[in-house]
Amino acid sequence: MTDFSLQVTQLGRETKAADSPELAILERVPNPQADTDYVARFTVPEFTSLCPVTGQPDFAHLVIDYVPGDWLVESKSLKLYLTSFRNHGAFHEDCTVSIGRRLTSLLEPRWLRIGGYWYPRGGIPIDVFWQTGIVPQHVWLPETGVPTYRGRG
Fold first, then answer.
1. Which residue among the candidates 37, 51, 94, 127 is catalytic per the annotation?
2. CA 136, CA 122: separation in Å to the nearest integer?
3. Could you give the CA distance from residue 128 to residue 114 in angstroms, rounded to a whole number?
4. Is 95 noted as a catalytic residue in this protein?
5. Over the stretch 68-86, which tens digit does the pLDDT of each residue have?
6. Which residues are annotated as a binding site for substrate?
7. Where do the structural domains in the chain lie, given as residue ranges?
8. Does 3.30.1130.10 match the CATH number of domain 23-131?
9. Among 97, 116, 120, 138, which has the highest number of CB atoms less than 10 A from its own CB?
10. Considering 3, 35, 58, 70, which one is annotated as catalytic?
11. What is the pLDDT of residues 73-131, one digit of tens each?
């Protein structure tokens, strides 16, 4: 059994969320199934950030799918990283793509995508999608399950 306490600094400890995504510590652990292609999914139905112009809160439902290589994201550090956006001012596109790029840089996955389904601001919903390339063959990739915004229609 692997001793993860030697590799992570937040798991199993009381940890406060960082004041900004730049200060957040995002950690990884070895993938014990690195010889197998599979999809890991994180669903974040209550993501929040701030509008960089008005300072008003923005809300999104994020879906992060990735095919790990040698590394997995440590889920507590991911939760704390995503929480750090609550006081961060950025546009929807910037938040979504920044999260995808930071995870890709840390994990070096075989493939990663993020879907940001943002709730309407000013009457217009903005959905943002980013991925690293083509999903590997023979990988089961379920639909995200998040419908596009339909309003009252």
1. 51
2. 38
3. 8
4. no
5. 999 999 999 999 999 999 9
6. 73-75, 92-93
7. 23-131
8. yes
9. 116
10. 58
11. 999 999 999 999 999 999 999 999 999 999 999 999 999 999 999 999 888 889 999 99
